[in-house]
Amino acid sequence: QVQLVESGGGLVQAGESLRLSCAASGSLFSISTMGWFRRSPGKQREWVATISSDGRVTNYADSVKGRFTISRDNAKNTVTLQMNSLKPEDTAVYYCSMRSFWGQGTQVTVSS
Fold this sequence. Notes:
- It is a single chain.
- By secondary structure, the chain is mainly β.
- The chain is built from no helices and 11 strands.
- The chain has strands at 4-7, 10-13, 18-24, 34-39, 46-51, 58-60, 68-73, 78-83, 92-98, 101-102, 106-111.
- Strands 2, 4, 5, 6, 9, 10 and 11 form a 7-stranded mixed β-sheet that branches. A 4-stranded antiparallel β-sheet has the order 1-3-8-7, with no helix packed on it.
- β4 and β5 form a beta hairpin.
- It is globular, with a radius of gyration of 13 Å.
């Protein structure tokens, strides 16, 4: 059974950084593309970033490109999202995703 558990969210001021982590259980992690998504209040879920199974290919939404970095450690079954230069519009619940599985999300709040 697959479980995804996000952590690292919190309340920060604009311009600060946060590092989100997602721990995955099961044997699919090392062969799966991993993704981060977010949902802001009143908005639909938005794709943020993805990373290939071997970590060599990453893609980012234009809104976070240059500020966020996705990485993974297949030995530890974890994927991280380093978020720098945070803006109030980054406020959202952040979810990690693997195949059809989703975590419970972690809240990120950026104050101006």
